[in-house]
Amino acid sequence: MSKPPVLEASATATTKFLPNLFELVDSLAADFATRAATHDRDSSFPFENFDTLHKAKLLSLTIPVEFGGLAVGYTTACKVIEKIASGDASTALVLTMHYLQHANAARHRRWHPAVYEKLCRESVEGIALLNAARVEPELGTPARGGLPATIAKRTPDGWSITGHKQYTTGSPILRYFVVWARTNDDEPQVGSFLVPRDIPGVKIVETWDHLGMRATGSHDLILEDVCIPPEYALDVRLAKAWSQPDPLMLAAGSLLLSALYQGVATAARDWLVEYLNERSPTNLGASLATLPNFQTAVGEIEALLYANHRLIYSLAADIDRGEHHTNVNLSAQTVKYLATSNAIKALEIGLQLIGNPGLSKKNPLERHYRDVLCSRIHTPQNDVICSALGRSALKIKKLANVH
């Protein structure tokens, strides 16, 4: 079974370049945690975290060694995202999207080798993040089908892009947007167009004010006759040709997001354990941690997190070894469904256990709960996953048309 084009396992490179990778990531997560509540409260973007991530060479974690990256596998990438998320979930989400878009760009390197090398080298040499811009006000998420309203017009010098995108995670810091658009041909083609941030016609409108993941800067992107060279059309084809997406790319998204919300739930568990050991009501004369029902509840949280760990890292290891099956995407989606559901349940157990203190803004548990609820929004969403699992079990290839 073939391995993915990036996120390839390369333990030698990782060991040689960053012999203490996970100790470094632990240290960074602890540092990010000291500012996470402030960025959450102010809905401010954590620029300083990405300066630190660049200096630590973590922005190039999944980039091929030939371009100065570490080319780590799924297992290492998941561990890094999980730990960063335990410090600051918003930072981890922006980093996750950066990793995924680099993996996606690697799939097309044989068609645009110079563009791909440029993206890689910029991410190694500086703070050059990229992310997709796909969701639109009218269309919603393209994962549910439909053509984008964003239009790419052919010009003598390449392409002119006009459109409106929403929820562009990381927009305050991104150097490139990978814009989902359709051409203005009689038979429209659809695909991804690479749009640099600092060119005429690109505008960010600060609209992001959500319940959770408040520091991700997921603002609106407005494109008005933005001109890009022809080679920045990364992958453009007829809409029907997109019916068979790369299963490994989809699997990467589900696994990294699962690891991210595992990190959030683990951070919440750690806060809860410390609180229960320190909190000693006068009428009890001992810490809450000594109460059997509290021990049982924490034990349930431990079981949920243990199950998540086994699910995420057993599949990641299978992919790294090239031992995954052809339906790896559905397996990864199943992991996402279970792991994020478990993470939410773990937070809810903690909140029910301690009541008002858990919902106080001065305690991290309240922020972790808001952040973990965002796991339900990311593609693929739970109904899509369960529908696919049901069709697979029932041996139905696709849903019948319903009128």
UniProtKB/TrEMBL annotation:
This is Acyl-CoA dehydrogenase. GO terms for molecular function: acyl-CoA dehydrogenase activity; flavin adenine dinucleotide binding. Keywords: Flavoprotein, Oxidoreductase. Residues 29-104 form the Acyl-CoA dehydrogenase/oxidase N-terminal domain. Residues 256-379 form the Acyl-CoA dehydrogenase C-terminal domain. InterPro entries: Acyl-CoA_DH_C, Acyl-CoA_Oxase/DH_mid-dom, Acyl-CoA_Oxase/DH_mid-dom_sf, AcylCo_DH-like_C, AcylCoA_DH/ox_N, AcylCoA_DH/ox_N_sf, AcylCoA_DH/oxidase_NM_dom_sf. The keyword S-adenosyl-L-methionine does not apply. Residues 136-226 form the Acyl-CoA oxidase/dehydrogenase middle domain.
